[in-house]
Write a structure and sequence with these properties.
mainly beta; 6-stranded antiparallel sheet; 5-stranded antiparallel sheet
Length: about 160
C-alpha cells in the first residue's frame, strides 16, 4: 500500500488537508458570482464550481467537518470508503463509496451537514474526487470541535470521538 500511496501523492502533487488525508485542487471555474445567501451562509464571490483530488489512507480519517455548499464525492482507486453524514435533525446517513456494484460510485453531501470519512481496510487507501458548487473557499469550511458536536448530537458520541481530533 505505501508504495502506491506514495506514487499517487507524488504523481498528483497532493498536499496534507486540514481535515486529514491529502488533496490537490484540480479545477476552479473561471466564472463565478457574488453571493449573499443568508440560508447557506455564503457571502462574497464564489467560482461556480471547484474540484479536488482527495486521498485517504487506512491509518487516517477525514475528520467531521461541514461546508456551506453541496459537495459531490466520486470514487477512482483503492478500497471502499465510508462517509458518515449527520443531518441537522441528528439522523445519521452512512454511504459506502467504491467501484463495487453493491456500493455507491458517487454521492452528494448537502450543504451545512456534518460529515467525516474513513477507509474500511486499515492497510489500504481510497483515492476520490470532490466537487463543490458554488465553488469551495476555506472561509466556508468548519472543522468540528469534539465536545461541541457531541453535545449537539450525543447519540453519535462514539462515532464523533472516533472521527474528530
Amino acid at each position: 500500500m505505501k508504495n502506491r500511496v506514495d506514487q499517487i501523492i507524488e504523481h498528483f502533487k497532493l498536499e496534507p488537508h486540514p481535515e486529514g488525508g491529502y488533496f490537490k485542487e484540480i479545477f476552479r471555474s473561471q466564472n463565478g458570482a457574488d453571493f449573499n445567501d443568508e440560508n447557506q451562509n455564503i457571502k462574497g464571490f464564489r467560482n461556480y464550481l471547484t474540484g479536488i483530488y482527495f486521498l485517504l489512507t487506512g491509518d487516517s480519517f477525514s475528520a467531521f467537518h461541514r461546508i456551506n455548499q453541496d459537495e459531490s464525492w466520486h470514487f477512482y482507486l483503492g478500497t471502499a470508503i465510508t462517509i458518515y453524514v449527520i443531518e441537522p435533525d441528528g439522523n445519521l446517513i452512512t454511504h459506502q463509496l467504491s467501484n463495487e456494484l453493491d456500493t455507491e460510485f458517487q454521492i452528494t453531501i448537502p450543504a451545512n451537514h456534518w460529515f467525516a470519512a474513513k477507509v474500511e481496510a486499515p492497510e489500504s487507501f481510497a483515492f476520490v474526487g470532490c466537487n463543490v458548487a458554488p465553488g469551495f473557499d476555506f472561509q466556508d469550511f468548519e472543522l468540528a470541535e469534539r465536545e461541541t458536536l457531541t453535545s449537539e448530537y450525543p447519540q453519535h458520541s462514539a462515532l464523533i470521538k472516533e472521527l474528530t481530533r
